TrEMBL record:
GO molecular function: ATP binding
Descriptive protein name: ABC-2 type transport system ATP-binding protein
Ranges for domain ABC transporter: 8-231
Keyword Acyltransferase: no
Superkingdom field: Bacteria
Matching PANTHER family: ABC TRANSPORTER G FAMILY MEMBER 20 ISOFORM X1 (PTHR43038:SF3), ATP-BINDING CASSETTE, SUB-FAMILY H, MEMBER 1 (PTHR43038)
Length: 243
């Protein structure tokens, strides 16, 4: 059972990359069993933040606690699933061969292979070599790896990028189904229309969080219905100009 303490808790997180500060003191919590969207323009620091959550990013200072443990702790290895933006599956193996390999690395049960193939709707491509998959199938294969071992937290870096609207909708339905089972999902995107599908939003810009709340809360705060317009309103507000 998941407790009601935050699935992710970040306090004053600062990260530098290439000698430049890219995250400037982020503080937020992610409630368990929710779908949280991490949205913001390209280069604002989404990937860097997700890397810090899964423990592969050197941080300058601050605290990142994941499922009650410091980010990157060995105990989190099987409890956190991470799908990178660029697919991390082997091009010369089939989908099923990739999944069997990653399942053995993660010590996930072999039966997980069929389960995750079903969950991402990749039955038709199961025995296909990854190099021959379509872009949408490749994204699903990458996501399937992150689902191995039934993690409590899924960290997904732009999982819907380049997908057609039908596939995007199907993936968001999958995310919702996982959250209904108690999984926490942190999903980055730079497509604002995806924000409407989340329980909570973290809006980022230039290494800072502009807003942290529900889509309705954001609409109420800005007085704007469309979330893209609400985001622009917040940018204008924080830049000191009237929107
Ligand atoms: N390996 C690196 N070395 C130096 N700087 C980097 C490196 N990777 C990213 N950066 C810089 O860190 C900042 C944040 O990048 P990051 O990839 O986290 O942004 P993002 O919001 O995920 O962008 P996108 O949506 O395009 O993936 C950017 O200014 C980027 O140029």
């Amino acid at each position: 059972m998941m407790s009601s303490s935050p699935a992710v808790s970040v306090r004053d997180l600062r990260v530098a990359r290439g000698g430049r500060d890219v995250l400037h003191g982020l503080t937020f919590d992610v409630p368990p069993g929710s779908v949280v969207g991490l949205l913001g323009p390209s280069g604002c620091g989404k990937t860097t933040l997700l890397r810090a959550l899964v423990g592969v990013q050197i941080v300058r200072s601050g605290e990142v606690t994941v499922l009650g443990e410091p980010a990157g702790s060995p105990g989190l290895r099987r409890r956190v699933g991470y799908a990178t933006q660029r697919p991390a599956v082997y091009a010369d193996l089939t989908v099923a061969e990739n999944l069997r390999y990653f399942a053995s690395v993660l010590r996930a049960p072999r039966s997980d292979v069929d389960r995750v193939v079903r969950e991402v709707g990749l039955e038709a491509g199961r025995d296909q070599v990854v190099a021959t998959l379509s872009g949408g199938q490749l994204g699903r294969a990458n996501l399937a790896v992150a689902l191995l071992g039934s993690p409590d937290l899924l960290v997904l870096d732009e999982p819907t990028v380049g997908l057609d609207p039908v596939l995007r909708q199907e993936l968001w339905e999958l995310f919702r189904g996982l959250a209904d089972r108690g999984v926490t999902l942190l999903v980055s995107s730079h497509v604002m229309d995806e924000a409407t599908r989340t329980d909570r939003l973290l809006l980022m810009r230039e290494g800072r969080i502009l807003a942290d709340g529900t889509p309705d809360g954001l609409r109420a705060r800005t007085g704007v219905d469309d979330l893209e317009a609400a985001f622009l309103h917040l940018i204008a507000e924080t830049s000191g100009s009237a929107a």
